[in-house]
## 1
Amino acid sequence: EDQVTQSPEALRLQEGESSSLNCSYTVSGLRGLFWYRQDPGKGPEFLFTLYSAGEEKEKERLKATLTKKESFLHITAPKPEDSATYLCAVHSPGENYGQNFVFGPGTRLSVLP
Amino acid sequence: DVKVTQSSRYLVKRTGEKVFLECVQDMDHENMFWYRQDPGLGLRLIYFSYDVKMKEKGDIPEGYSVSREKKERFSLILESASTNQTSMYLCASSPYTQPQHFGDGTRLSIL
């Protein structure tokens, strides 16, 4: 069974204090790994797609990397507006396309001024 | 930019009512999804549609049905609302093998 775990569950950083969020996955095959940001009371906002080990994507203070078993979301010099829950999801091959998206539980990030 | 619009941000209904949640996407995506999100349980797939009039059950379809009469619109129906269906409901759409794009959600309270 495909599984996605994320760590830590919650993270508090001071403004400017860089850190990384982890997404570990167990899938029969990987079609894509996706990172989302979710603000309270809103839907997830798509950030990145990664398809193969070694791939990296960047957007402002965020950089996502991928290995064969995990992905990291690196946050460099975060600002309070980066506070949100970050979700990781994987898409694996299989008969039931809709059920082959598996979301992790998320990491709740708080950046203090 | 992809736009997924859910008809209501907040909705309050009574037990036993039939409830309709509407979702519209403007990018001609083949796939549309309905999830519910509850604290500690994450995102759980209710139903998925890969084409007009086509649907597949997700992980928690009991008590729900869906309708997709047009490509851009996907409706979630609670046949007889119960208090355990109080939740945040999220609609998403995607082209094949691409990431899903979500609406802002409907926070549904069943009293």
## 2
Amino acid sequence: AQSVTQLGSHVSVSEGALVLLRCNYSSSVPPYLFWYVQYPNQGLQLLLKYTSAATLVKGINGFEAEFKKSETSFHLTKPSAHMSDAAEYFCAVIPVTGGGNKLTFGTGTQLKVEL
Amino acid sequence: GAVVSQHPSWVICKSGTSVKIECRSLDFQATTMFWYRQFPKQSLMLMATSNEGSKATYEQGVEKDKFLINHASLTLSTLTVTSAHPEDSSFYICSAQPHYEQYFGPGTRLTVT
């Protein structure tokens, strides 16, 4: 079964520092990959997605992610953190074949941005 | 584009009563909608997949008689929590899927007293 691993349930960075949130998937066939952000008491907002086109994907709010097949990874980065980036981030996958359209979520990473 | 709404955004009800939560795709049609439950500080747990015009498919361990799902049109799905109990208190989130990506509603906070 498809699984997603997010290393680090909590990440803390200083404002202006690089943000790196890690995501690894388990399947041998690269799935569709997504990053979502969730602010307190709100639903999920799609940040970006990988659907087998360009390996470097740019999303909203200055975030980007790079798909690396050799590492089965899809890490999320942002060059300079802003206080408003503090939120919960979820990596998620949908299998390209055989899994229906269900999203499998990682356990989430809480990003804290400090002054 | 791709806006999903949920109503109500929060609800408090007494134990034993039923609560209906609506999920609407406002600017697109979705043959498939999903219902999730989220406990504090945790990831989303898929409860069921709702397809327009057919019965919902429930995940293992989810009581279909307790969580009634109806997908009456391409823009509306409803989740009814029947005979609610305090342990049903949670954050319920729906999503709508026009293609392969899902767009999420803002969530409904249910508190059962």
